[in-house]
Amino acid sequence: MFPPDTAAGLAALRCQVRGAKGRNHYGVRVPPALSVLTRNKDFRNLFAADLIGLGADWFVMIPLLTLLPHLTGTGVWGAFVLATDTGVTALLLPYTGTVADRLDRRKILIAADLSMAACALALLLVRTSATAWVALVAVGAIAVAKAFFAPAAQAALPNVVDREDLTSANALSGSAWGTMLVIGASLGGIASEAFGPYPCFAFAAALLTMSAIQVWRVRRPLQAERETTPAHPFAAIAEALRYIRGNPRVASLVTVKSAVGLGNGVLTLFPVLAAYLGAGPLGTGLLFAARGLGALVGPIVLRRVLTHRAWLLPGLALSMAAYGLAYIGVSMLTWFPLVLAGVVLAHLGAGGNWMMSNFVLQAEVPDALRGRVFATDFMLATLSVAASQLAVGAFVDHTDPRLLIAACGTVTLLYSAAWSAVSLRRPAPAAS
Predict the structure, then answer these.
(1) CA dihedral in degrees (277, 280, 285, 287; nearest 10)?
(2) Where are the transmembrane segments (predicted)?
(3) Model confidence over 234-281: pLDDT tens digits?
(4) Which domains does the chain have, with CATH numbers?
(5) pTM of the prediction?
């Protein structure tokens, strides 16, 4: 990070750079947050790979979450699928983060994409209640690949953009998940209703293959030169944990996503809520799309927070509280369009929360430790998600979904209050 006495000079330099670079090849001015896409081919390819892969994920999950209750007659399988997706990833992240710091991140990303494509095709075997277990195995294998992909992709991002573009690249990267959740969830719901789940699974495999091709086209190295080989994986994990424990600001950032994670059991309730309100499979897709729209808008709306050091930790606290309050409000609504609006608001806070914490971690954590620190960050977030989804799954078949949604919102709100009481006493992370 830059020392405080250089902040004003850095801000002036950033303005000059954006003024010079904020045009495309035809001389047309583009927004600063988008100009990095027009100027940087490697970031554009990596961003496209992320978009395509994220879109493919929803051509798997939305059809699968509507198929399994139809085959089995219970919503528990949907909870198992979501918990498997997050839980397996969480358990592997400490190791895969170390791999992201030891091996070629480009090869990791390509291998992960191709593995997920093969697993998506395995879902074509899920035809009866007796073969529902195949879905868990396939989703578990996809989760393994995601566990390798996520820390490698996040750790690679600062290596494909210039320092002055990192804020814009993070805003775009943070919005990518939301963008493809809007598009992927909407189209996944529509395609599932129109064509059935199996063509969706095949299409997802094709998209993941395209994502691997985009990663292959990135030419910049995705990690810095290593002067020494990282330690044995378990020793390397211990090194990262010591670093987190010795840096209170980083410790705050790697625990902040757990607030939203502990409220994420609401995702298990989306198919149930859609049926309860008479919206059907298309309604399930629209609920996930509303979640994505919020996650897309959140990083854009809250991007300004990144340039104000004093706003970062309060902004994170407010974003958590917004998520909890919004879902408490959703639990009281019965008109589906208002429910969608509430979900958008909740995930606006969640998307901004994710983007802000990622940005500061990328800026502050050394490259040699970045993959492991992000792995720890993702592990805590996904473990909290899996715990929430399993807890909700235990009650989903015999409890009013509105009560469960209110409970999820309340848990996030309480976590936000506890996190704020501890973390807001610490100095705010420096903003680049």
Answers:
(1) 0
(2) 46-68, 74-96, 108-126, 132-157, 169-190, 196-216, 250-276, 282-302, 373-396, 402-422
(3) 666 677 778 888 888 888 888 888 888 899 889 888 888 988 888 877
(4) 36-223+234-423 (1.20.1250.20)
(5) 0.66
